[in-house]
Design a protein that fits this description.
318 residues; alpha/beta; Rossmann fold; Histone, subunit A; 2 domains; 6-stranded parallel β-sheet; two-stranded antiparallel sheet; 13 helices; 8 strands; globular; disordered N terminus
Length: 318
């Protein structure tokens, strides 16, 4: 019997077919995903696909902790700097574009690395979503203006009335998700929860799911240090350059909304910095909760590369 060979790194394993592998690395912000994924990509002759919902935008770099130019030069990255903040973009758009891109990519390579901390965008690849109709830009802008004018509580109340089922488990403090669920319900006349059947789509590749975590105090120190670094590197100037688009969903997020408040003289500099740190820590906690409750990942410390390598090898069926 003749064998084909699946190449992983510098090793070759006999296989009756060349199985395509997507190594998915998730975890909270500042945990160390970028360094590990560059290491894995270099080891397995792979490229990196981002599933971070804010790193798509070329205008946002500092506040999104985008990989540095040096890091981007080490390994080819996809879905970073591929959009403008002026572009409308949905998780459904992302799902289609990434699955299409991986289809082309796997014609030439056997292993891809995907990483990010945006739960819905991760789910778009691991499970997929039902086709949700496009929502008029005017409706989205109307809801964003209501949020900007301090009427977010009204949106939550409306969503609870229109879709109590979705609200049972949704993070109702997340303005982007509340706005998304409400706009779909208002536009389609059908609760957002009814569009989410949660029936996983079949993929043409195998997904190896890896989660990264650290002791809480260590992670929080890394977050605090990263925020100080962002501010030193020019986060405030970055926010000033996108102030005309402050109602965009990507800017209704940690690290940007606090600076908008500072620029509006609603807080002082010290308060702004502390709020970014606090809200980022809270966001990291929500990320961990999402990944540990919504799917099955194998969890590791980021520095434990030999153990991660061993797990990847065990997951590949030859």
């Amino acid at each position: 019997m003749s064998f084909n060979y699946l190449c992983v790194g510098n090793l070759q394993y006999p296989s009756l077919k060349k199985e395509k592998i997507l190594v998915l690395v998730v975890g909270p912000t500042a945990v160390g995903k970028t360094n590990l994924c560059i290491n894995l990509a270099q080891k397995y002759d792979a490229e990196i696909f981002s599933c971070d919902s804010r790193q798509f935008y070329k205008e946002l770099s500092i506040g999104t902790a985008k990989p540095s130019k040096n890091e981007l030069s080490k390994v080819k990255h996809h879905f970073i700097n591929n959009l403008s903040i002026q572009n409308g973009y949905s998780v459904a758009d992302y799902e289609k574009q990434v699955i299409d891109a991986l289809g082309v990519y796997f014609q030439e390579k056997n292993v891809a690395i995907m990483t990010g901390g945006s739960g819905l965008f991760v789910k778009a690849i691991t499970h997929g979503f039902d086709a949700i109709p496009d929502v008029p830009t005017s409706l989205r802008e109307e809801l964003n203006k209501r949020i900007e004018n301090g009427r977010f509580d009204e949106l939550v109340k409306e969503l609870k009335e229109l879709d109590p089922l979705y609200c049972q488990n949704a993070d109702l403090s997340n303005k982007q998700r509340v706005s998304r669920a409400l706009e779909v319900a208002l536009h389609t006349g059908k609760p957002f929860s009814e569009w989410l059947k949660d029936e996983p789509k079949k993929r043409s590749f195998k997904i190896i799911k890896i989660g990264l975590e650290r002791p809480r105090e260590e992670l929080y120190k890394r977050i605090n240090f990263r925020v100080d670094l962002m501010l030193a590197e020019g986060l405030i100037d970055e926010v000033k350059h996108v102030i005309d688009f402050k109602t965009a969903n990507a800017l209704q997020t940690v690290g940007y909304k606090e600076v908008f408040d500072y620029l509006n003289e609603e807080t002082d500099y010290k308060t702004m910095a502390e709020l970014i740190k606090r809200n980022t820590r809270r966001y990291a906690k929500r990320q961990l909760t999402w990944f540990k409750n919504k799917d099955h990942f194998q969890w590791f410390l980021p520095e434990n590369i030999p153990l991660i390598d061993s797990y990847i090898a065990q997951c590949i069926n030859f």
